[in-house]
Design goal:
By secondary structure, the chain is α/β, with parallel strands linked by helices. The protein is 42% helix and 17% strand.
Length: 287
């Protein structure tokens, strides 16, 4: 288990109760709060602040609000969550017609496209894959629509998260450098998973390759926006690890000779006890 998705969160108190329960059990996982009640909307600011992620459950919200309000609420929640750098998932009835049909309705396609253009971390199928007749077809339709809309100019706009954190400043500098030097990828060597979360929160169009030897961090990163996680054994020297990463990316045909890579990591590299992302470097892939 890598995330906790909690239903019927009404206030930050509910989130903290879950966190305290996990603490008693000796486990701490990031919490995704499912927004589906009138109380949750009333307390949305404190819930966003207390949670690592937000899921917008449009179906349940539709039971408590008039249908014409749902798009406005979705925009509000996405705006508040992304402003704070939190994971955002849009869920429920995205391809409802594909429970019975192989082809989606055009309005459903537009729904998925708009969510992709808002740069949410994920869109989610539920009944379509759990009980529908065409689960694989529904999945392929969703992927196809997302991929097409990720090519748009609107999608490529950079969304900077306001923060005074030194790590955030390093990550944002790396994203800016990636943009101006035309980097093929931003590579993040991570132990704690903090830097990948910050990079994803800024909603850049560049794909960020996160390397870690921690399987839990790897699994968590799969949910983050525009993150491609890779397991790689940590080396004693950062130069050796960077070489290993580039070789692996070559093997996977992700890069070729002459490509630019921007890499973020921590120095001193040997110190695993107090790692803080503090270094940005630009590397050109050699032969």
């Amino acid at each position: 288990m890598h995330w906790i998705a909690a239903s019927f969160i009404r206030s930050s108190k509910d989130v903290e109760e879950i966190r305290m329960y996990m603490k008693k059990k000796g486990k701490q996982l990031p919490i995704i709060s499912k927004i589906e009640t009138f109380s949750a909307i009333q307390n949305i600011d404190e819930i966003v602040e207390a949670s690592e992620g937000i899921m917008i459950a449009r179906g349940d919200l539709g039971m408590e609000f008039d249908y014409e309000e749902i798009p406005l609420l979705q925009d509000l929640i996405i705006s508040k969550a992304t402003e704070k750098g939190k994971v955002v998932i849009v869920a429920t009835q995205m391809l409802e017609s594909m429970l019975e049909n192989t082809v989606p309705k055009r309005a459903e396609v537009t729904d998925i496209a708009l969510a992709a253009r808002e740069k949410v971390d994920a869109v989610m199928l539920s009944a379509e894959t759990a009980a529908g007749k065409y689960p694989l077809e529904a999945f392929k339709v969703m992927a196809r629509v997302i991929e097409k809309n990720e090519e748009s100019a609107h999608y490529r706009r950079f969304r900077k998260v306001k923060t005074d954190s030194p790590i955030s400043s390093i990550c944002q500098s790396a994203l800016y450098l990636s943009s101006i030097c035309g980097a093929r990828y931003l590579v993040c060597i991570s132990e704690s998973g903090m830097s990948p979360a910050i990079i994803a929160a800024n909603r850049s169009s560049i794909i960020s390759v996160v390397t870690t030897e921690n399987e839990e961090i790897l699994a968590r990163c799969r949910l983050y926006y525009s993150i491609y996680p890779i397991v790689i054994k940590r080396q004693k020297l950062h130069t050796k690890e960077i070489r290993l990463i580039i070789d692996l990316m070559k093997k996977r045909k992700m890069v070729q000779v002459g490509d630019n890579l921007v890499i973020v990591f921590s120095l001193p590299y040997e110190d695993k006890k107090d790692l803080t992302t503090n270094t940005v470097t630009n590397v050109v892939v050699g032969s």
